[in-house]
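Justification of resources, computational component.

The compute hours requested in this renewal are based largely on the per-chain cost of generating structure records like the one below. Each record pairs the submitted sequence with a full structure-token output. That output is archived, and it is also reused by downstream analysis tasks.
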Amino acid sequence: MVYSGIAEMALGSSLMLCNKKQQKPVGKIAAAFFTAVFPGNISQYAHHRDAFGLDSDKKRFVRLLFQPLLVYWALKCTHH
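The structure output for this chain reads:
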């Protein structure tokens, strides 16, 4: 959905812009969100659904590979 993409961009921006006090909570929220949308990304790949410019199985698969990296990034850059 468009809303999950907006939320992902907002969380990513928040990670870059938040102050030290906010880093851990924002990192946990971002990691949880990135984890929560992962099954939807798998479903999009499995059912060959186009969205957000992902109009091929290759593009959808590449996104699946990067989703765990987003979770790791959210936690690592906030010192978890």
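The chain is about 80% helix and 0% strand. The CA atoms of residues 2 and 52 lie 8 Å apart.
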